[in-house]
Amino acid sequence: MCGIVGAVAQRNVSNILITGLKRLEYRGYDSAGVALINDQGLQRVRRQGKVAGLEQAVRETDASGFTGIAHTRWATHGRPSEKNAHPHLSGEELALVHNGIIENFQELREELESEGYQFASDTDTEVVVHLVHRAMAETADLFRALQSVVKRLRGAYALGVIHAREPHRLVAVRSGSPLVVGLGIDENYVASDQLALLPVTNRFVFLGEGDMVDVTLEGVRIFDADGNEVNREVHELDGAHEDAEKGEYRHYMQKEIFEQPAAIQRTLEDRIDSPQSVSDAFGERATAIFDQVRTVQIVACGTSYHAGMVARYWLEALAGIPCQVEVASEFRYRQHVVPEGTLFVTISQSGETADTLAALRDTDSSNYVGRLAICNVDGSSLVRESELVFLTKAGPEIGVASTKAFTTQLTALLMLVMALGRRKGMEDEKIESILNELRQLPNLIEQAASLDKPIEQLSRAFVEKHHTLFLGRGVQFPVAMEGALKLKEISYIHAEAYPAGELKHGPLALVDKDMPVVAVAPNDELLEKLKSNLQEVRARGGELYLFADKNAHVKEGEGIHVLNLPAVPEIIAPIVYTVPLQLLSYHVAVLRGTDVDQPRNLAKSVTVE
Ligand code: AGP
């Protein structure tokens, strides 16, 4: 989703801004732009398409400045085009960038038009820049102008504004959309994500909801939503830089698939020494809160939702704790009954997903025994607004398709199952045996990833297909769902997942030689039932592609292609079986020539509703 970078310095900041935008490309966008202030005034360059095109245009126009704002736009209001790209201007001195949606833009636009303001774009954002322009006529102070304008805005926004009359100042605000401040030496920055600024600083301030920041060469001043000056903690980040580079890999997604053993290892480190350390990993208040838990409500979107679905099978089967899982965009708009003793759990890679965040914010905390965030980004809104936090340690995930975030979420959720189970009488012996399985996990993931070459071979069969069915049973059903999501989002092949037992209730009608069917077949108690379901597919001429436990005795044959996985303990099998499905979609997408890391129409961090 839209990305913002801004800088105030004594040197030309155009490179800082363009590099920052490149590092935000993973968020998804369709156009990009930059506005720079130098001694001659304000200059703006915008282009539809990739940041590389903008970079070239900046070079060709010789645009430079010591203060600037830059933006990648993911269209919401108004189609992707140069005229709708940010920054938007009002007059020749004022420029603004925006991430989010201004819900009341229509009424504001009518008001401004009636006063003679002319609009150059179809965006909701343009009203804001004109409102600031109007306010500047009254206060002649950029900070105060923006402060008065945000009172008129409804919706979600992170905004950055510069004005040629105050050339060494950048004013920014966040409400509902992410924004961080970067602290440099005699120069300071803002960005939607700290990744954008890692080449210039490792010192960050995560703004709170409603915070407004006045950025100058001398420093930054932060004011809360009530206008009181506040001190926010400065975070020093280490080691995240290299993780955000592609290195020897062709795509970030590929790199992130192969990073999974290390990411899981990091997520487990120091947290699984004993049954007690598992609970401790959820924070100081965890034990007191977990003692009261009788049921769990999980809320998340996309891949994170699939992680929640797996957790439901685990929680009910291993810990005997009832669990509901719902996609956040539905949960937040539905009246629901909250059983006594419910723990509210959100799962998110980014911690900024608008629907998940809104669901958390809508919860009446008195109805829940506590709210836990399982999240990959420290300092994100979800993390800051939850009582309990478990940070997965996947490292920066740049590919839009979530891979290592998912498997580390599953790892975290299995730990949650043990932590809650222990309070409900799960024996330490049982916990120790799951811990032993978890200790083997990085190695098993590595073995699964070593099937890369044969999976690449297999993927050729999918390149010309238009549809694919994914099947799984039990806890492997959400794994099949995740496999289908991966294939559709990066290869644009229509893919659906079904619990294999549902086949004959409808989807079997679709099966013919043109519909490949992918199934995950670990050696579990449902294996024999799954095998019968697969016969139903073969009997209709469907081609089967099976990822099966080497001890499951699933035989290759006409129309049956089998890739054997190592023998995997049943509980952790969903984590291991995810990997071949990720590799399958990756290779199909590469062969189809799609944009693997930034698939069309999608954004990494969905910060608008
Ligand atoms: C999955 O590959 C997608 N990128 C998407 O479904 C994603 O999982 C979803 O948007 C939720 O994001 P979050 O984990 O950052 O909240």
TrEMBL record:
Q: Name one GO cellular component term.
A: cytosol
Keyword annotations from UniProtKB, A to Z: Aminotransferase, Cytoplasm, Glutamine amidotransferase, Repeat, Transferase
Q: Which residues form the SIS domain?
A: 286-426, 458-599
Reactions listed under catalytic activity? D-fructose 6-phosphate + L-glutamine = D-glucosamine 6-phosphate + L-glutamate
Q: Does the keyword Transferase apply?
A: yes
Q: Where is the active site?
A: C2, K604
Q: Name one GO biological process term.
A: protein N-linked glycosylation
Name all Glutamine amidotransferase type-2 domain ranges.
Answer: 2-218
PROSITE patterns, from UniProt?
GATASE_TYPE_2, SIS
EC?
A: 2.6.1.16
Give GO MF terms, alphabetically. Answer: carbohydrate derivative binding; glutamine-fructose-6-phosphate transaminase (isomerizing) activity
**Record's subcellular location:** Cytoplasm
Principal place where this protein is found?
A: cytoplasm
Asked if the record carries the keyword Transferase, the reply is yes
> How is this protein organized at the quaternary level?
Homodimer.
Q: Entry's HAMAP family?
A: GlmS (MF_00164)
Q: What does this protein do?
A: Catalyzes the first step in hexosamine metabolism, converting fructose-6P into glucosamine-6P using glutamine as a nitrogen source.
Name listed for the protein in its UniProt record: Glutamine--fructose-6-phosphate aminotransferase [isomerizing]
